[in-house]
Amino acid sequence: MKVSNFIWTDKNSKRWFILLPNGHTGPYSLSHLINLYDKKKFFLESKIWTEGLEEAVAFKTYLDFKKSDQKQPQEVYEDELPPPVPNEKIKKTQVKFKIKKITINSKKLIFLLFIGLIFSSLVFLKGTQEKFYFSRLNKMSPDLHQRILKENIFEGWDKGIFFREYFAQDHSQIWLVSNGYQRCDVEAIFHSIGGKLLSLKNEEISFTSRGYLSHHVAELNSFAFKKGVRVIPGVYEVDVKAMNCKWDGLWPWLMNIFNQPEKEYIARTRVVLYPDGAEKFFKILENFKKKKNHLKKREKKANEAFWQDLVLKFQTLEALTSQIEQLFLDFLQTPPQLMKEQLKTLVNEYSRNFGTFLTTFVMESGKSFETPATEELSKKRNYEEMIKQTAKSIGLESMKLIEELQEIKNFTSEKKLSGVNNKIKIKFSRIKKEISQKLIQVSQDQESLQHTL
Question: How many Cβ atoms from other residues are within 10 Å of residue 99's Cβ?
Fold first, then answer.
C-alpha cells in the first residue's frame, strides 16, 4: 500500500470494515474501530478496509499513520449494508475459510448420522423383539399353541412373573405360562376343590410337580400324588413358587441392565385344568353337575331301596325263624303215641315250606347284591355274607333238631321231650337275637351313610 493512497483516503468516512476469515463486519467510523480494538474485539494484525484503498491494510498501519493526523470522526452509525468485497484476493481468502467450515460440519454430520444409524438399528431390533412368542412344545396341539400366543402379549421387558395354566388333551402335561422374561426353578402344589372335578365320585386329588421356567413356559410332566392316582380335569388351588430367577436372554438383560429380577416368586391361586380352557370347562361343569345331581337322586333312591330291601331280608329271616320254631313246638304237642308217625309229616312240611325257601332265598338275595347301585353299599359290611350266614344258621339248627328227633326211640319220656323243647327255644331264640342285632347295625349304618352324603 502506498502512503499517498492512505493519505488520500477520507479518514472521516463512516464506511470502514473489519475483514474476518469468514466475511466482514461494519461499516464503522474510525473512532468506533478504536473503541472495538480497546475492548479487544479484534487485533493489530486484523485487516481493515474502506473505499479509496486498493487493498485491505492491517489495523496497526493505521495506528502508525494516525500520529500525524489529529482529526477524529465523531458520528457512528452502523445501519448501512457493507459494500462489495474490494478485490479478488479478499474474496479468495473468504472462500477458503467457508470451504473449511463446510468440511468441519460434514465430519460432524457424518458422525451424527453414524450414531443415529446405530441408534435406529437398536430401536428397530428392539422392536422386532418386543413380542410374546415361543415354539410349540411336545404334546402341545397347534390350536392350543395359537390360543396361548393369543391370550398372552408383550407388556414390557421388566414384566414380573404371573402364570396362566394350560392342560394337555391326554392330561399328562401342565404348562405354566408367563409373559415375563425370566428363567426360574418352579415348584407347584395342586389341591382339588370339592365339587369342581369332572368326576361322578367324590374324589380328592393332591399332587406336587416341578419344572423350569424358560422362554415363557414351565412344563410340568411328572406328578407326585399324595391323594388320588391321576389328574382329573377340574378346579384346583395351587401354591406356586419360582426360585433362582434371572433374565431370560440378551435383550431382557440389556433392557434391564440396571435392574435385577425378583429372586423368588410365591403365589396361591386357583387354576382350571381343562384342555379347552376355563370358559368351556365351566359350561361343561354346569351340565356335569346337573347329570351328577340326577345320578345322585337316582342313587339316593337306590340306596333307600337297598336299605329297605336289606331290612326286609332280615325281617323275613326273623319271621321264618319264628315259624320254624313254632313248627317244632307244635310237633311236641302231639300225643306221644302219634309222634313217630307225625315226625315224617314234620320233615316233609319243613322241607317243602322252609328248606327249599331258604335255598332259593339265599340265591335270589345274592343276585340283588350284584347290581351297581347296591354292590358298593354291600361291601361296607358284606351284607350279602350276613344274609347267607343267617339263613345257613337257621337251616343247620333246624336239621340238627330233626336228626335229634329221629334218634328218639321212645316219645313217652317226658324228660326227653322236655329237653328237646328247651333246646328248640334256646337255639331259635339265639338266632332271632342275632338277627335283631343285625337289624340295629343296618339302621346305624344307614344313618351314618346319610350324614356323609
Answer: 10
